[in-house]
Amino acid sequence: MKVSSLSQEQLRQSLSGAGLNFRIGGFVFRIRSSLAAVIDGLALLYADYPLAPHNEFADFHVEVRRPHGPRRWFRPQVLFFFDGRPWFKPLPLKHALAMLEWGLNWCVYGHVNQYLIIHGAVVEKDGYAAIFPGGPGVGKSTLCAGLVARGWRLLSDELVLVSTADGRIAPLPRPVSLKNDSIELIERFYPDAVIGPRIAATEKGTIAHLRPPADSVARAEEYAQPGWVIFPAYESGAATQLTTQPKGLGFMRAARGTFNYHVLGLAGFQALANLIDTCRCFKLIYSDLDDAVAHIARLEPPSVATRKASAP
Amino acid sequence: MRQAQSLLVQAFCEPTSVAFLEEPQWDLLIRQARRADLLARLCARLGQYGSLARAPARARNHLDSARIAADQHATTVRWEVRCLKRALSGIELPVILLKGAAYLLADLPPAQGRLFYDVDILVPKVRLDEVERALRKHGWSFMHLDAYDQRYYRTWMHELPPLQHLRRRSVVDVHHRILPETASLKPDAEKMLSASEPLEEMGGVHVLTPSHMVLHSAAHLFHDGELEHGLCDLADLDALFRHFGKMPSFWDELIDSARELDLMRPLYYALRYTTRVFATPVPGRVIDTSKKSAPRVVGKRCMDALFTRGLAPDHESCNDSFSGLARWLLYVRSHYLRMPLYLLIPHLVRKAVRRQFKE
Amino acid sequence: MGWSALENATLYSRTWGDETLVYSEASGDTHLLGPVDATVLDFLQKGSATIPDLVAHIVERLGIEEDDELYFYVSELLDKLETLALAEHTRR
Predict the structure, then answer these.
(1) Which of A63, A86, A111 is the last residue in one of the domains?
(2) Which chains lie within 8 Å of chain C at 3 or more CB pairs, if any?
(3) Predicted TM-score (pTM) above 0.90
(4) Do the strands B171-175 and A199-202 form a parallel or antiparallel pair, or are they unpaired?
């Protein structure tokens, strides 16, 4: 059963009551909230997501609600609760949907060690994953949205999950978080996109969420082979440059941006080294999204490139 | 409504019983364990009894993830001890480990699946300055503390403030006392120090004797501790009693040491609550002896009401309407036992105000 | 004065061209080394060595000219490896 099969009223009642089990990638999140912005946001952005039965094991129990006390009314705030305990400092009430999204990310990168979890975006085409490590501000979400607009499957815009068992990339498709000018850019670039409400004045500026294509959600259990690691850097006015990234330095950059690199110990070192080994590694400087997407689309997967390199 | 015994405690006491749990119960079990900081220990316990295979796949993932994190904690602590050994070998002082680091390096059961935070060491009071200098020379420095906190540690608690390594960010707590000087009980740290035993596999590193280790843990939980990890600490005591209890001379030594160190009351509580929560096997004569140090009937009922709640996982499924109050009273009690009233009240007010501003 | 790799501290490495990654299981630290540094560390793992031993090995393996600058570099490198807990003075 999908979220879209519930009426708005059913959705509101369930979310305000015992909560609903959302199946997102390989995880089940029990989400509760009686806030209109969150309910509407979930209805729009998670319409295609399957719901799990209430008595199924839920990986994470979360709630977004207003605090008790004076901040419930005066300059109202919102809190993120993880299994009944508040985490993070409160945010203004109008940031409730953004808070839920950030909280869901934290649930995964704070508690899951079956995967090496790199901060970055990842999309897939023809079975190969293109991984874009990087924190806020490098342009990875915009690039991710641009590639999805041109037919790449969305695996994630924030968390790259590399299986420590076999090195494949696990999908965790969630709404892509667009910021500031990117919102308008993607609206133009991707006319069919469904984009949620603009949330102004957050720590990262104005945010809006792009709904993942139904196909990306439907294929959320289909792992991908790692293909490319591309370190993006948006530079206003720059021509697109896609150059080779030396692997040792690439490893260190990726490790710095991996949430659980130290926690995984030797397994983390080996998983990341194997990933860098397997993938073709690049640096990307871009300002024109169309051109950047075209450059990436022309990249050959590792197997083809290796065959060519070793041919006489 | 509080359950008679949480799913978590049931799983600890009877690991094979998890085979009969339905998915919603596994959901609750994992959440209780996570809240009590016992998820990795639960993983180890279930693993020992071959019960991990009974867990649904996603529950198993959470147990394994916690174990992976705990394994890394252990690696970090071993490395820290190695670094401490290097730092203190220059002043020819053995590293005497307390609590978690001791359990780990001595390969004791409470180390399995444990999450370690700081490393605690015990040093002779007369050598405190030397130790401070040696650690600072090797890259540790005092964490950023305001003047009040510095005074709290140095003047009132008579301890060094915690030291953090500049590069590794790990923290070492240097103790020269078992309980603060202002506490009502006065166990002699020098006795514990001089009786400490060297580790076979690692020269220059010592741990306390079995009975001292137990008494230190009991004093920390029932006299000094804020009960944030109450059930964890109680599980430590249960594991230590079971492990050392197999040694024929242990129980008598325990009673003798408790008398010598003025720690009979914390030992009474340790025995009372480990037997009640974990059904720890303790010889009857030992229980009877410890009962002589019990509080009077009213006090006993009161402490039971407080500790039964305070030692349960702090999770909505395990709390009742008095749990919040019980935890607060135990928190105040732990401070009351540490410092006189004229210091306690302003200290509590200050802590409450600070917490308010942090939010 | 002799040097060796740290006792009871297994190292894992991965090399791509001139870059060598080294992971120390004991400390949990990861380091990126160039060819000279990696050659020195690799040699120390096989047994203890003096600075002249290491210089001779580098000259033979990498074809670098033996001069005062190389001796100085190796001496500084050993201090750096000691700080990184990858090498230590051997106890005599």
Answers:
(1) A111
(2) A, B
(3) yes
(4) unpaired
